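Catalogue entry: protein
Contents: sequence, fold tokens
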Amino acid sequence: MSDLFANGGNPDKYSAKDIEVLEGLEPVRRRPGMYIGGTDEGALHHLAAEILDNCMDEAVAGHATLIEMTLSPGNSLTVRDNGRGIPTDPHPKFPKKSALEVILTTL
């Protein structure tokens, strides 16, 4: 077994300027596995399950009566429900943007 601490670490300075800040959706784009549990087939299934969970939450809360999932040739997935959908009114924190835009570009 090797000693991980044998070399005493990196002698170079480590400061705040070495910390890379990723904003918006950039962290998800750069490290998708950290957010969805991987980048393999299982992770894609996880994403589909998350979408289905959102639809089921709407139905259980009494806001939807229909959930439809379609797997098309080429493995594209379409999920539809008759729930409330994503709000499109202005977001309170970003009044010039709709909640839909904030959800899809910022959160």
